[in-house]
């Protein structure tokens, strides 16, 4: 399926081409404009939209927040927009991209479709924005969030070799739980800690997080591990009925050890973190609705 986004500006493509070829990121010039567009949109929301809109809609609550809480509020606004939009786009591409649906092993590893590349590019643009904020406000968000932003940006950028283009949409579905997490945080700041609305949202958060990050995540991780294992055991006489239009950018059909370690190690680490985060969320929600906690409208 072709990229439904507008075509890249020739100037951007020409400027990016030499560096991308040097770095073996052969499909990146086709999506450089989407990365820059996503970065610009999220930057504008963070710097120029979240604060005045929140002040207009919630003048008492927003203006009463500390500088650090306002910073986090604005970041949660961006995260809410990004998580909803990228989840919808990823699901849409998975449903309508027929070429992607019928990829064989070789195509899943080194193949490319424009629509899947679009999802990958818009995600990369967000992680680039996220990294810039984490660097600027390291004292607020901490080293952990900086490391998360860096690893996500690196992983999705390397996908433009292209490699694992098929799986870009698959793992973006982790974001299905993020809107509920953002809403849970907003409830605290709005003085709705312990409310029924927060309870229902908390139950939805745990259910969706468990389903999309642990169940779907484990299933998808197993699939990518299996594909990598099969690819590493491909013999020279193995023949694939691959479609040329999908392999046109697959100039570097290899799986160097550092790439395998980076991807598979990253997925193992993320799955462990998902289990840890689920436990933390369950504990936090239980504290909010414990009979010992007095609901006084203050954020915990």
Give an account of the 3D structure.
- The chain is mainly α and 300 residues long.
- The chain has one domain.
- Helix content is 72%, strand content 0%.
- It contains 12 helices and no strands.
- The longest helix is centred in the last third of the chain and has 37 residues.
- The termini are far apart.
- The C terminus is likely disordered.
- Keywords: Membrane, Transmembrane, Transmembrane helix.
- One of its GO terms (cellular component) is membrane.
Strand content: under 5%
What share of residues is helical? Answer: over 70%
Sum up the overall morphology in one term: globular
Note the run of SSEs as H and E. Answer: HHHHHHHHHHHH
Major sheet: none
Name the descriptors.
300 residues, mainly alpha, 12 helices, 72% helix, disordered C terminus
How is this structure best summarized?
This protein has 12 helices and no strands.
Topology:
Elements: H1 10-22, H2 32-57, H3 59-63, H4 67-96, H5 98-101, H6 105-110, H7 114-136, H8 138-158, H9 165-172, H10 178-189, H11 196-232, H12 257-288
């Amino acid at each position: 399926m072709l990229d439904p986004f507008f075509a890249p500006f020739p100037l951007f493509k020409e400027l990016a081409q030499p560096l991308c070829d040097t770095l073996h990121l052969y499909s990146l010039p086709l999506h450089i404009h989407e990365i820059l567009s996503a970065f610009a949109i999220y930057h504008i929301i963070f710097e120029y939209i979240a604060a005045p809109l929140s002040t207009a809609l919630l003048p008492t609550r927003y203006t009463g927040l500390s500088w650090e809480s306002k910073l986090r509020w604005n970041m949660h606004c961006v995260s809410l927009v990004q998580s909803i939009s990228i989840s919808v786009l990823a699901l849409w591409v998975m449903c309508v991209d027929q070429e992607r649906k019928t990829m064989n092993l070789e195509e899943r590893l080194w193949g490319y479709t424009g629509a899947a590349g679009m999802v990958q590019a818009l995600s990369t643009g967000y992680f680039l924005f996220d990294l810039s904020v984490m660097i600027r406000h390291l004292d607020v968000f901490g080293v952990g969030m900086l490391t998360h932003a860096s690893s996500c940006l690196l992983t999705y950028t390397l996908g433009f070799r292209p490699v694992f283009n098929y799986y870009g949409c698959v793992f973006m579905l982790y974001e299905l739980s993020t809107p509920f997490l953002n809403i849970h945080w907003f409830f605290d700041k709005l003085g709705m800690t312990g409310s029924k609305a927060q309870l229902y949202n908390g139950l939805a958060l745990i259910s969706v997080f468990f389903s999309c990050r642990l169940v779907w995540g484990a299933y998808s991780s197993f699939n990518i591990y299996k594909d990598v294992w099969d690819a590493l055991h491909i013999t020279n006489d193995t023949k694939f009925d691959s479609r040329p239009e999908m392999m046109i950018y697959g100039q570097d059909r290899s799986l160097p050890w550092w790439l395998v370690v980076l991807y598979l190690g990253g997925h193992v680490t993320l799955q462990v973190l998902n289990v840890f985060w689920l436990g933390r969320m369950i504990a936090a929600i239980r504290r909010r609705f414990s009979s010992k906690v007095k609901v006084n409208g203050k954020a915990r």
